[in-house]
Amino acid sequence: MEDFDKQNEGIEFKNRVSMNGNFRYRDFYDCKFINCKFTGTVFEKCLFEDCTFIECDLSLIKPEYCSFVDVKFKNCKAIGVNWAEAATPFRIDFYSCIINMSSFFGINLTKIIMTECVAKEVDFTEANLTKGNFEKTDFENSRFLQTNLTQSNFRNSINYAIDPECNLLKKTIFSLPEALSFLSELDIILD
Known about the structure:
This protein is mostly beta strands. It has two domains: 1-99, E3 ubiquitin-protein ligase SopA (Pectate Lyase C-like, 3 Solenoid); 103-182, Pectate Lyase C-like (3 Solenoid), CATH 2.160.20. The protein is 0% helix and 23% strand. It is built from no helices and 13 strands. The chain has strands spanning 7-9, 12-14, 22-24, 27-29, 32-34, 42-44, 47-49, 52-54, 67-74, 90-95, 114-115, 153-154, 173-174. Strands 1, 2, 4, 5, 7, 8, 9, 10 and 11 form a nine-stranded parallel sheet that branches. It has a two-stranded parallel sheet with strand order 3-6. It is elongated and about 50 Å long. The mean pLDDT is 92.
């Protein structure tokens, strides 16, 4: 695969493949990545601004000190990504993506959109998810600990285990019957 230019603006990249590649100091403005495969690739000190990834495989990428500003992922796989390695500013959204085994530890993700996703075994410890939209997402075995979920929307999401004693929940929206999972944290017997 040919290398990216240092500055990339308004370019549509299709069917690009970089397995375990390494890109440093690359800037992408208003670019689209369609059906690209970047599995295991290191992106070091790159900037992605107003970019969209569509049907891409970003599993095991390393976003080392990268900035993501208004970046959208649609129908992508981003499994095993430690997003905490990224730099600020950081503003990303996921639509119908698989982001299993990823980490957002300690990241400010205010107003993040993560809808119709599979987010199994994802770490949201100490993340700020204020006003996030998590509708119709599967959070099986994901970790919420000291997470700010103020005014977040979990309508029709499933398999979350959120302890109200260990997370900040103010005007957070949940749907029944999944919201009954909060009762599992109480020392009670349901009959």
